[in-house]
């Protein structure tokens, strides 16, 4: 996403979505096929960063679920992730971006104006058609779903008028359409590493018109699967049905690829947490200090406040890490103080790079971000630097002060610093935590109804498809619906 689209300018409808998974217990685990969007060291770095920039514009204002995930967030290896889900009856497959920074599930629909029909990612795109599904139902403006979304009856509403949505981003790109309710098909895990197909029912956006970058075929997907905090997100839908808690976790492996994405209560490993900033649209936390090696950076006292966007945004859907000039410049200077002979050069007018033949972990300092609650995020040189050639390294830190006015003071931490760590989002209790972890191993999650604890492992399934000069990686994303069933 573009930093120019960091702030959502217009949300005509943000749905109060009700998710349905039947009256009985759904089961424990669901699986999604997840693929990475970029692959191969030969990929275009500008495309990867441009994707981040556009993604930032989509960042918005209980049973337990576990999502083992595959892939790598390393800038020179892979970028963001997208999942394959089934919608409708009979079910059709759709590729949707898995996005913790947005709040609805929407897909492009039949009859759409300027929706992409092909993707340069090598994917076959599908237009959802409610008429092809025997279980689809339109949502109308006089229904509770729509009136609660608008906080009351809509002026001029008639029973035959559909409940519509319209999202306009800061760069003018937009998505508009109407809401439908239909089956979603996922893979339910019925035991350790065992699963079967299962259906649920969710309300989602049916995209009728796209504009700007959303209509481009360069990085086109069928839609977006939002994991944000709003009632319209997938996790909130499941929570509203009483089947899940609003908790999820991810562990992205940048060493060997693959990883885990989990929704639900993680019981092992244990993580230390920090409070989320209240009343924020994003997953925001409060950073207090930055340490480079043994040196604590001397920074302005208000540098960690970002205007209306209070605190530091934690977003697994972004590849890099973005810091305002007041942090970026002293951070880079202190990192380089141990290497005075390093000569910097700009790559593609966007990345600060240098030549280095030795092990970067031996030549550059570790960076530590200290957060409220004594939680520390440690980033090693091989994590904040990425290698594009045998002897060329680039900084993954980006200067958000060089971006648009809206994003210039933003602190945003993406996969660059979140990888190789288990990150746990507890929306129920408004905390986020993390711990360094082997993301190619497994985590343990608890089923509240039975008390059973399940081990969920990482996945990294490679397909033979081609994608931007590299091989497309297919991931298995497992959603463990470890739920409390209400009699």
TrEMBL record:
Superkingdom of the source species: Eukaryota
Keyword Ligase set for record: no
InterPro entries membership: Aspartic_peptidase_A1, Pepsin-like_plant, PEPTIDASE_A1, Peptidase_aspartic_dom_sf, TAXi_C, TAXi_N
Keyword Protease annotated: yes
Active site per the UniProt annotation: 99, 315
UniProt keyword annotations, A-Z: Aspartyl protease, Glycoprotein, Hydrolase, Protease
Domain Peptidase A1: 81-435
Single GO biological process annotation from the record: proteolysis
GO molecular function: aspartic-type endopeptidase activity
Family: Belongs to the peptidase A1 family.
Protein name: Peptidase A1 domain-containing protein
């Amino acid at each position: 996403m573009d930093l120019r689209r960091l702030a959502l300018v217009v949300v005509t409808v943000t749905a109060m979505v009700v998710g349905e998974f039947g009256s009985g217990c759904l089961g424990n685990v669901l699986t999604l096929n997840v693929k990475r969007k970029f692959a191969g060291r030969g990929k275009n770095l500008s495309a990867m960063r441009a994707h981040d920039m556009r993604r930032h514009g989509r960042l918005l204002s209980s049973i337990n679920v576990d999502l083992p995930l595959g892939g790598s967030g390393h800038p020179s290896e892979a970028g963001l992730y997208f999942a394959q889900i089934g919608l409708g009856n009979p079910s059709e497959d759709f590729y949707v971006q898995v996005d913790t920074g947005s709040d609805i599930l929407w897909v492009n629909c039949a009859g759409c104006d300027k929706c992409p029909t092909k993707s340069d990612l090598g994917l076959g795109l599908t237009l959802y058609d409610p008429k092809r599904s025997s279980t689809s139902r339109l949502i109308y403006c006089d229904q509770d779903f729509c009136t609660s979304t608008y906080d009351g009856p809509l002026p001029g509403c008639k029973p035959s008028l559909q409940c519509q949505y319209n999202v306009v981003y800061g760069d003018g790109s937009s998505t508009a359409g109407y809401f439908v309710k239909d089956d979603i098909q996922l893979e339910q895990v019925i035991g350790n590493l065992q699963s079967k197909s299962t259906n649920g029912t969710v309300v989602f956006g049916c995209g009728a018109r796209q504009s700007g970058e959303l209509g481009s075929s360069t990085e086109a997907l069928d839609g977006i699967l939002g994991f944000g905090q709003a009632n319209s997100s997938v996790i909130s839908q499941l929570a509203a049905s009483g089947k899940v808690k609003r908790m999820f976790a991810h562990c992205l492996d940048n060493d060997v690829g693959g990883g885990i994405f989990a929704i639900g209560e993680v019981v092992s490993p244990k993580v230390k947490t920090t409070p989320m900033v209240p009343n924020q649209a994003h997953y925001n936390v409060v950073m207090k200090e930055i340490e480079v090696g043994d040196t604590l950076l001397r920074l302005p006292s208000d540098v960690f406040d970002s205007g209306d966007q209070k605190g530091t945004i934690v977003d697994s859907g972004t590849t890099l890490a973005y810091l305002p000039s007041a942090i970026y410049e002293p951070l880079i200077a202190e990192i380089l103080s141990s290497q005075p002979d390093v000569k910097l050069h700009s790559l593609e007018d966007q990345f600060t790079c240098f030549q280095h033949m030795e092990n970067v972990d031996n030549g550059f300092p570790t960076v530590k971000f200290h957060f409220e609650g004594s939680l520390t995020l440690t980033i090693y040189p091989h994590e904040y630097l990425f290698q594009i050639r045998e002897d060329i390294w680039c900084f993954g830190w980006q200067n958000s002060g060089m971006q648009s006015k809206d994003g210039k003071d933003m602190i945003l931490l993406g996969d660059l610093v979140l990888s190789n760590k288990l990150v746990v989002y507890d929306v129920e209790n408004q905390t986020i935590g993390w711990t360094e972890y082997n993301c190619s191993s497994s985590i343990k999650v608890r089923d509240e109804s039975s008390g059973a604890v399940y081990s969920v492992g990482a996945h990294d399934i490679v397909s033979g498809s081609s994608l931007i000069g590299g091989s497309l990686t297919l991931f298995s994303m497992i959603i463990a619906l470890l739920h409390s069933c209400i009699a």
